[in-house]
């Protein structure tokens, strides 16, 4: 009886472990793209406007064009609206705001459900792990 219980426990442990490891696979670029296009994601990308922190609401319009409407965290008023180019390559989302703002990269990006997760880099320097929420 103990041998059967031990086999069952070992089998269950192996099954749970294999499921855990397979769920950590990287998304391919097409899956990331499909999760972004025609959606708006909002959250903190560590931008400041007039020396105050702002929250970004990025709407991914086409395969290379997006709009970032930024709002002040403290009062919710609109700070500014920025146009940007974007693309996905090798599991990284690139956000190009032009020559006056840093190039942002969200590496190790995962897009699914209501959230976008990844590691934020600004001009190649690590900033923080971020989570953006999809607007409903």
Number of strands: 8
How much beta, percentage-wise? over 45%
Element-by-element helix/strand order = HHEEEEEEEE
Report the uncertain regions.
5-24
Shape: globular
Widest β-sheet, arrangement of strands: 1-2-3-4-5-6-7-8
User: How far apart are the termini?
Assistant: 53 Å
Q: What class, by secondary structure content?
A: alpha+beta
Compute the CA-based radius of gyration: 20 Å
State the helicity in percent bands.
10-25%
Report the mean per-residue pLDDT as an integer: 86
The tally of helices reads 2
| Quaternary form | single chain
Largest sheet: 8 strands, antiparallel, barrel
Q: How many domains in all?
A: 1
Please, could you describe this protein's structure?
The protein has one domain (27-134). The chain has 136 residues and is of the alpha+beta class. Mean pLDDT is 86; it is low at 5-24. A hairpin with a 5-residue loop joins strand 3 (65-72) and strand 4 (78-89). The longest helix is centred in the N-terminal third of the chain and has 21 residues, at 2-22. 21% of the residues are buried. It has an 8-stranded antiparallel beta barrel. It is built from 2 helices and 8 strands. The chain is globular.
